[in-house]
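From the thread on structure requests for the teaching lab: each student submitted one protein with a one-line request. Submission from student K.M.:

"Model Tubby C-terminal domain-containing protein from Wallemia mellicola, tokens only."
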Amino acid sequence: MEPQCAYIIEFKSLASNLLIFKKGVQYPDYELDVNVTRSRMTFLELPYQKRLARVHGPKLLLGKGYKMSINGEKLRMHRDSHRSTCLWFDLLDKSPCVVVKGGHGDGSTYRITNILTNEILATFQPSGPSYGCMNLNAGGYDNQNLIALFTAMAIMIRLGIDRT
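Reply posted by the TA:
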């Protein structure tokens, strides 16, 4: 049974890159390139390898704070020191958001919520051992904010792969 969603996110392991496909398309549209040794992630538009965002942290997958750069605009992201299941960040329009992971294994879900309006902007649910479905509910946002949503979700998925 084919999942009902807007995007399919494919991943292999903690050290591999994430590939993001629009539903029904054979080739990926985006890739999150993970370089653990350099503590960096790069969000790329495919097939041209155009860099849309870069994320850097002192200890990329273990650290609590991240710096994201989208077309020169800087965003800060941070995780709670007691829980690795939440990631807070502001969109470029200064809307505070949180990415929350709930559940375990196949029943786990990831959700990005605008804290001020309590609106769910994106959801992700694993559909198998190496892929899952992502839906966006961000019709009023520009491309840069959508890139921030994709990147924040991809970071949480990357952090949660070895824990799901």
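TA comment: The chain is about 10% helix and 45% strand. Residues 143-160 form the longest helix (18 residues).
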